[in-house]
Amino acid sequence: MVYRQMMKNSFVLILLIVCFASCRSIKTVVNEEVELPHISESRLFKNVGDSALSFETLYAKKIDLTLRDKEKSNSLKAMLRVKRDSFIWISVTAPLGIEVARVLFTPDSVKFINARAKEYLISDYGIFSEKFDVNLTFDCFQRILTNQFFDFISCTSTVEREKRYKLDKSGEDYVLYSLEERAIGRKLKRLYKKKRRNKEFTLVMQKVHVNPDNFRLNAVSIEDLEENLEVSVSYGHFKDFGGKLFPERLSFKLLSDSDDLEVVLDFTRLEFDVSVSPNFRITSKYKRIY
User: Fold this and answer.
1) Which CATH number fits domain 2-288: 3.30.930.10, 2.50.20.10, 3.40.50.720, 3.10.20.30?
2) Which pairing describes strands 260-272 and 57-68: parallel, antiparallel, or unpaired?
3) What does the alpha-carbon distance between residue 120 and residue 132 come to, in Å, rounded to a whole number?
4) Which of helix, strand or coil describes residue 65?
5) Where exactly are the structural domains of the chain?
6) Strand 287-288 and strand 166-170: pairing?
7) Which residue among 19, 71, 175, 192 is least packed, with the fewest CB closer than 10 Å?
């Protein structure tokens, strides 16, 4: 199962490296059920762009991180510091406060420390394509963490995006969707050959759920229709604090016949436009693995 492997690898990467988004505040935004008015794809994209979070820095001092699979659930803590278009800094700790991992994304580099194994890596973003056949960039991670529009397939925002999506309504959301036949990368083609399946393309459905009240993203998902696999990220419990509207919870899910994985991120403290710095020191005791 080729595309399944690519999507699973991508999900695990985000699960291990990306851990964040949002906070608790004072005023709850209530969504009342109403019949959605008609809107064009181009107008919806404009509204989404105009309503995107405006910030220079983001500081989440305390994040409750829960990892679940079919058999167990684990709880961790995390901190997140973001300086727009400059860096994303993440620290993950065990329940007793012992740091287990630290990550630093900059526009042109990825740095990762595994404190338990005393190992580290330093690379550019080509590592994701080389090892996992997925195109991940700094802009992609920044958009996911700050509840901005992103494309799961290309992980970018492009001016031609509205031509790829069709607009529908589902429950209380506007839904942008695309059904595409996607080419398979070299690594996945080799996997198909091992399975004796000469496959060059796979059929993928992508959906973006948009909140009609604030035009912020409620969820983004991608589904391999041939392999019964879905990866999604959802944003819940929007709060208004300090004049900033942001989701209190971010959740990643991987659903398939063999896997049922979820990471839930609950933010109990979040500040915008405060001073942040990327503390990332690698000691001589650590071994470089990449």
Assistant:
1) 2.50.20.10
2) antiparallel
3) 18
4) strand
5) 2-288
6) unpaired
7) 71
